[in-house]
């Protein structure tokens, strides 16, 4: 049975020129019987050529990509390009408007919703449209993230290692062209519900990245995205010009062992800072119990050698929260 998205748009993906419009997701509620959720989209096209698909606001509380893509929507002109650039700066719009990771409508985490469902919740409908309509048009997909409200990150661009070596190779070439100060490969296997995993399943070179976090806007992360977008377009031949090779620190996250989780609920005191090198067995941090001051803090330790690239941002922690993760230089 053919399953089709209910999302409609005035955008004609085959039309030359610049279109800034909306994806309308029907959302009939008391306040608005025939209402839609209007998710912004821009398509800039000039003749035949490759298609780049840039997305942000997959998680609503991650801002570097949202701002970089709004800037790109306003500045990119058809005359500058050959081919097509599709820009979705606030993919999970309800979450982006609320400044939350998940949608306030259905608690949906867009990056755990792929390949989606045309008849599912709002968030799963968004995923289905991206997967079934946008991914098939794309030669390159880049989804810009950060740590959001709960995590702080050393800014990096990233790619996942998937089962298709040809797709992995194209992803790695794009990662190098993007040229962020840190480039990271997730080796522990991509959850198929993630956007890059879904794109890669369709043969699209797919990148991600964590460009800051803590619910703020990281200036270095924003600068890395803006410079990288230009290099992406040159790499694809959408914009003319050579790519000056960028110094990038190549890193990898090898396994789940490189993540540390809070052993108890309480107040987490990190023992390291982002960027620090640690060894197996080193103290990651202590969980304190302000409601029981005589109780000694609970310690947690690193289970691998590596560099701290991510830390939990809020100190208040539940048992099972990720409090840090490592990457290694490669
Ligand atoms: Zn995210």
Explain what the structure shows.
This protein has 330 residues and is α+β, with helices and mostly antiparallel strands. The protein is globular and about 70 Å long. It contains 6 helices and 19 strands. It starts with 7 loop residues before the first strand and ends with a strand. Helix 1 (64-75) links the parallel strand 4 and strand 5 (83-88). The protein has helices at residues 64-75, 93-98, 122-134, 165-178, 195-201, 219-236, and strands spanning 8-9, 17-26, 36-46, 51-56, 83-88, 140-144, 151-153, 156-160, 182-186, 205-210, 249-253, 259-261, 266-270, 277-278, 283-288, 298-301, 306-312, 316-317, 322-329. The structure holds zinc ion (ZN).
Please specify the SSE layout and strand pairing:
Elements lengths: L7 E2 L7 E10 L9 E11 L4 E6 L7 H12 L7 E6 L4 H6 L23 H13 L5 E5 L6 E3 L2 E5 L4 H14 L3 E5 L8 H7 L3 E6 L8 H18 L12 E5 L5 E3 L4 E5 L6 E2 L4 E6 L9 E4 L4 E7 L3 E2 L4 E8 L1
Parallel strand pairs: 4-5, 4-6, 6-10, 8-9, 9-11
Antiparallel strand pairs: 1-2, 2-3, 3-5, 7-17, 8-10, 11-19, 12-19, 13-15, 13-18, 14-17, 15-16, 17-19
Helix pairs in contact: 1-6
Bound molecules: zinc ion (ZN).
